[in-house]
Design brief:
The complex is a heterodimer of chains A (126) and B (449). By secondary structure, chain A is of the alpha/beta class. Helix content of chain A is 40%, strand content 25%. In chain A, α1 links the parallel β1 and β2. The two termini of chain A are 17 Å apart. Chain B is of the alpha+beta class and 449 residues long. Chain B contains 11 helices and 8 strands. In chain B, the strands form 2 sheets. A 5-stranded mixed β-sheet of chain B has the order 2-4-5-7-6, with helices on one face. In chain B, strands 1-3-8 form a 3-stranded antiparallel β-sheet. The radius of gyration of chain B is 39 Å and the shape is elongated. Classes of the chains: A alpha/beta (126), B alpha+beta (449). At the A-B interface, α1 of A face α6 and α7 of B. The structure holds adenosine-5'-triphosphate and magnesium ion. Adenosine-5'-triphosphate binds next to α9 and α11 of chain B.
Chain lengths: 126, 449
């Protein structure tokens, strides 16, 4: 099976590092990371990831603005996005931690690697 | 200051009135020709005294002793005027009541009494001196003296009681203001708790997320076949989960979106919660006594929130009865007319209820360790707990308070150290306070919550 490319945009560098290592460790993913909105958008255009993990609350350009900009550009509009947020509860998302609200996917922090992987897979598989 | 100025004007005006009347009576009545010089001197003197009053600085008028001295002075002068005018026998003595009316400006009954006696004495002497107490009409004249005293005292008494009513009202208002201020502070705390909630969630969950991912990372690096390492990982995740649970709680409670107020059959809801808590109640060997006055009592509340609140109160009660010799939980539900809107320990005066309104009261009493006053004052504060770390976050009651507030209800507590505690949750009735059949859900339909 071909590895999927995941873009992580989160202002917490340590988080990005660990998630990248953990996802790579699963042998299923290739990972690129950006620690703020603008570089994240540039990477989305140049790397054409299969999915973007996007932190909602970031200093400067927030996750929502990034997602909107991605939506607005035809190269990136079709890339699915999962928002990482501290503001939803287990009650909102159920135990898996993934929730579709409107057209957007949300996942509650903190999340364990195995839950994150199954969330990514279920979004990628439609 | 304004008040004192008004008082000064009033004194000046009434005295002027006194002077004019006295002058008129002296000069234009049948005996007007006699002692003309003396009379002119008297009027000039009295007028001068009033001008002096007008010229006095205002601070003199805030001193009640000086004020009564002035009244005494006027009393003597008026008596002298009566004597000078030769009208002791006429109704001219009624002018004294003008002076009494001046005394409304202060409310010292003792001074007024003294003054009334002075005048009665002087006036009595005048009557006697003019031989009026020994002629045919003596009875009428004699009666004037007690009449003066009684009317003066009555007047003084009325004025004083009106004043002291006002004063106690003032005190009450003042107390209420202080209470309101405390509530506002509390409300503000509550509001900032809501605002804080998302801040805390963000600030704590991000590091938790790093820890969580970091532990997974270490776990992957670990060679297989190290069961103690796996165990350590699980423990770390349990701790992360514990911290996360607090955030979950705060967020859950602080969000408006999940908040729907609907008619809730309170008896059924309590029965559901007792089912939920059944296991821990049994394990702790707590007996439950229910006293539901009417099985259909219906409150306007948020079902899920209210069951969380009741569950927390019951759990607190179970905790409090851990070492109690008698372990009994008593739950009463009844409807009550509001007859006073005081509040005890909850921070908000019950301004959601007006006197005469109905409210639905849920009373939960335990026979546990109770709490001293100083603990009771704090239990609704966020993060206040007396439990060991790991057993309580101290959020249960503060969230309950905030939520019940949003349901336009109140929560109160009364407790006796070492004897037990009662929580009172007072809710708005839905419609007339009774659920219809369809609203009667609970028990069967809602047992999953
Ligand atoms: N029935 C009771 N009897 C005696 N003390 C009580 C009772 N209920 C509450 N308290 C006191 O009030 C404190 C605060 O209660 P609260 O429910 O807010 O927090 P908690 O139970 O300590 O933690 P948690 O957030 O897990 O509920 C308790 O720690 C306890 O000291
Ligand atoms: Mg509690």
């Amino acid at each position: 099976m071909e590895k999927k490319k995941i873009l992580i945009v989160d202002d917490e560098e340590d988080f990005c590092f660990f998630v990248r290592e953990n996802l790579i460790n699963s042998q299923k993913f290739e990972v690129v990371i950006a620690t703020s909105g603008k570089p994240g958008m540039a990477l989305a255009r140049s790397e054409k990831p299969d999915l973007i993990l996007l932190d909602l609350m970031m200093p400067g350009m927030g996750g929502e603005a990034v997602a909107e900009a991605l939506q607005g550009s035809p190269e990136t509009a079709s890339i699915p996005v999962i928002f990482l947020t501290a503001l939803v509860t287990r009650e909102d998302t159920g135990t898996g931690g993934l929730k579709k609200i409107g057209e957007s996917w949300f996942i509650a922090k903190p999340v364990r690697t195995r839950d994150l992987i199954s969330a990514i897979e279920s979004v990628l598989n439609g | 200051m304004q008040e004192i100025l008004a008082r000064k004007r009033m004194i000046f005006t009434i005295r002027l009135l006194l002077i004019i009347i006295t002058a008129y009576v002296m000069l234009f009545t049948p005996s007007g020709r006699e002692h003309l010089v003396l009379k002119a001197f008297f009027i000039a003197f009295y007028l001068a005294s009033d001008l002096i009053v007008a010229a006095l600085p205002e601070r003199f008028f805030s001193n009640f002793r000086l004020f009564y001295l002035l009244i005494c002075f006027d009393t003597i002068v008026v008596a002298a005027g009566i004597w000078l005018s030769g009208q002791a026998g006429s109704d001219f003595y009624l002018i004294y009541f003008l002076i009494i009316s001046l005394s409304t400006l202060s409310s010292r009954l003792r001074y007024l009494m003294l003054n009334a006696f002075i005048f009665a004495g002087v006036y009595g002497w005048l009557l006697f001196q003019q031989g009026l107490l020994s002629d045919d009409l003596a009875v009428g004249y004699c009666l004037r003296i007690p009449f003066i005293v009684i009317i003066s005292l009555f007047y003084g008494f009325v004025v004083k009681s009106v004043r002291s009513d006002k004063e106690s009202e003032l005190r009450r208002t003042n107390k209420m203001l202080v209470e309101t201020r405390n509530q506002l502070i509390q409300k503000d705390k509550m509001a900032s708790l809501g605002r804080l909630a998302s801040g805390i969630a963000h600030e704590i969950r991000n590091p938790l997320e790093i820890i969580s991912m970091g532990v997974d990372y270490l776990d992957n690096l670990m060679p297989d076949g190290r069961p103690e390492a796996k165990k350590a990982v699980d423990r770390i995740f349990a701790a992360i989960e514990r911290a996360n649970a607090i955030i979950e709680d705060v967020l859950k409670f602080s969000r408006k979106t999940e908040f729907v107020i609907e008619p809730v059959n309170i008896g059924n809801l309590v029965a559901d919660v007792l089912d939920m808590a059944g296991h821990s109640l049994k394990r702790a060997d707590v007996g439950v006594e229910k006293e539901f006055s009417d099985p259909r009592l219906c409150a306007a509340a948020s079902r899920n929130m209210l069951s969380q609140i009741i569950l927390n109160i019951i759990n607190n009660a179970v905790d409090a009865m851990e070492k109690a010799p008698v372990k009994r939980l008593k739950i009463r539900i009844y409807m009550q007319k509001v007859n006073n809107v005081g509040y005890k320990t909850g921070y908000r005066r019950a301004d959601y209820f007006r006197v005469g309104d109905n409210m639905i009261v849920l009373e939960i009493s335990d026979t546990g360790k109770g709490m001293p006053e100083d603990v009771m004052m704090k239990i609704f504060e966020p993060f206040f707990t007396t439990k060991q770390t790991g057993r309580g976050t101290g959020l249960g009651l503060s969230l309950a308070h905030m939520i019940i507030d949003r349901m336009r209800g109140t929560i109160d507590v009364s407790s006796q150290d070492g004897i037990g505690t009662t929580f009172y949750v007072k809710l708005q009735p839905a419609a007339d306070g009774h659920c219809t059949k369809e609203e009667d859900v609970g028990k069967e339909k809602n047992s999953h919550s």
